């Protein structure tokens, strides 16, 4: 019927006994986040249930009985690699919202850039969480899985990251100097954490991209974007803003329960141990990992009904 939506909101499931890696639904990178399709107001999402588990995981009284992570070392590495990356994709989406808001409303640029800076900080935590496995497990398990997808498999193929960099450059050029400076400082700190994780997992510095004789910085093909999405279980489809945020809160809940169960590292050295001149920065992120994720979940729920930014401002 004309005027009816061609999609339905997805309600996240109630917390189950074990954490599970499921598909994450995302709009196209430059596409809009849509209004809820329920017709009777905002769609129902189990925000409070997942926030309760986040709070329990921070209480210091032992891990919650729900969302239990895997015990096997290789399974846990795969779980963190997927949950961490899926969470990152949604954080990137929120980052583009914040930076687009700074560009749309110069009088609010300082607060929008501050929000974006905090999201870069959470992105740093997710980098450590995703790459927290022992280096041997990464080389024996995760890297071969990516190579089986494509010999040159690379993070450069992530479809949702390009708008982040595009908007970041625009904010640096167009926003008030003070606001842009704070955001760029957070971005540079995130880059240092990223490099520290890469150094810890691949000490020789030879990425799959380089190993396959591909030049870094080449624009990925549409098929490479799709391949990256398939590996990390991303489905592209219309998503309302509440569903988008609920997916993130659920995965942050999984990460927080996991950290309360296993700690950040399990059987391998801390990333800060090989971070050289970035050791102090990385150690600070390591120490704040659970707290920063919990605060993110609370902020996301608090702004669950915030209207999305127009797609035209997404770079």
What's the total number of strands? 2
The SSE string, one letter per element, is: EHHHHHHHHEHH
Largest sheet: 2 strands, parallel
Instruction: Name the overall outline.
Output: globular
Count of structural domains: 1
The separation of the N and C termini measures: 34 Å
Low-confidence stretches: 1-5
* Total helical elements: 10
Rg, Å, rounded: 19 Å
Portion of residues within helices: 55-70%
Main-sheet strand order equals 1-2
Structural descriptors:
single chain, 315 residues, mainly alpha, two-stranded parallel sheet, 10 helices, 2 strands, globular
Question: Can you describe this structure?
Answer:
- 57% of the residues lie in helices and 2% in strands.
- It has one domain.
- The chain is an all-alpha fold and 315 residues long.
- It contains ten helices and two strands; from the N terminus they run βααααααααβαα.
- A two-stranded parallel ribbon has the order 1-2.
Present the secondary structure layout.
Elements: E1 24-26, H1 47-58, H2 73-104, H3 109-130, H4 135-149, H5 161-174, H6 177-201, H7 208-211, H8 222-231, E2 234-236, H9 241-262, H10 279-302
Parallel strand pairs: 1-2
